[in-house]
Backbone:
């Protein structure tokens, strides 16, 4: 498949965008990355994702696919090259979808709340929910992997991608706040899994290190500050 | 497949439970309904859905499947009997999943907000979002159905189930508040679709009429009032 057939509208720092990139890498699909600056949102983004106006958008043969976990499933079904990403058994597929939705609907909002911008009380409450969440995900990991290295068994699959995309940001927050989210004492399975995941061929060139994310985080904070100041000046 | 192999933990008034029932009906699967009273939540519910503690739960061969749209996909994949529920084309499947998620994540919270319990201002704002949502869903319906009667084409499929399950409650709110959500002037496609959907064999015995829901709504309101009074008495 020629590179021009698959384009991703996104940016390197987004874990959700990384899901799409990892899935295409697994399938051996070349793609073109179109950098979305997001401030203001590009006309292309508004056109291809008018409902949510969010990245990533996969544009495959000029047709957009939105929402990262839906996109990962689409990539698995649209390209028969490479390994399958979802489990083949219907029950395991349902469980993979369940935990994928849990990560996005429950775990990520808590993880997002682990930030000083939200205030110290809210940050602590969020961290507690994040730690409860990784306990649940440790259980899911043990169930799925059955002693093998990944959620997907011998190779990475849907849940590896769904949770693994956050590892750069997890390390960044662990460093920044002096906390441990994937501690070997609490979640030994996930702690080892995280190391293996980052070394995978489809992943290793994509995973941003904590230092790069720290720099980006400062740019983001300055941008939010400028937006807030502009809003205050207008009122 | 014997009836005891498939059980639904749920209740007749829940649109999310109805999704599971319609999907099993489409596949010609007999199932046992286990009524969840929800106040307090049953031990079975806490055991089979410890993460969300919500209905419906499909229990198939003693294994629980939670989250109604994940369950509908599971039913489609686990039973090869009957028609397929999701589209066969990968792109159409992705679009069906996209709009299914839109219904649950965006449309339903707005629809839930169309209630006097939330206050008049909030009710009006919610109604506006509901009406914007049905406009988007009208567009999706026209794209999917391509002049045929259902989102699924000649027969009902994933999005018919995902949105159709709300028709009883839509009619109830239309009656109660003197509003029109699926008005033939605004969304002519969906207005006609709604009539057809309710007449389908897999649906017609399940769809509660607005009057029955009005009675149930009064019971619910009394229950919430009692819970609020008990909470006030404790403080």
Residues:
């Amino acid at each position: 498949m020629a590179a021009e057939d698959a384009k991703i509208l996104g940016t390197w720092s987004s874990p959700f965008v990384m899901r799409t990139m990892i899935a295409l890498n697994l399938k051996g699909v070349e793609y073109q990355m179109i950098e979305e600056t997001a401030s203001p949102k590009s006309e292309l983004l508004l056109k291809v994702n008018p409902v949510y106006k969010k990245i990533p958008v996969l544009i495959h043969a000029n047709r957009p696919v939105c929402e990262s976990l839906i996109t990962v499933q689409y990539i698995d079904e649209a390209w028969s090259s490479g390994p399958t990403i979802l489990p083949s058994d219907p029950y395991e597929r349902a469980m993979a979808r369940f935990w994928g939705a849990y990560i996005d609907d429950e775990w990520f909002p808590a993880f997002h709340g682990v930030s000083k911008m939200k205030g110290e009380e809210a940050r602590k409450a969020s961290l507690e929910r994040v730690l409860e969440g990784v306990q649940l995900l440790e259980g899911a990991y043990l169930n799925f992997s059955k002693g093998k290295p990944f959620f997907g068994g011998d190779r990475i699959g849907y849940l590896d991608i769904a949770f693994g995309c956050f590892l750069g940001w997890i390390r960044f927050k662990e460093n920044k706040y002096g906390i441990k989210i994937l501690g070997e004492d609490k979640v030994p399975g996930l702690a080892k899994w995280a190391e293996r995941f980052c070394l995978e061929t489809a992943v290793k060139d994509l995973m941003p290190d904590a230092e790069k994310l720290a720099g980006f985080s400062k740019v983001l904070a300055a941008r939010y500050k400028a937006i807030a100041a502009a809003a205050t000046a207008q009122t």
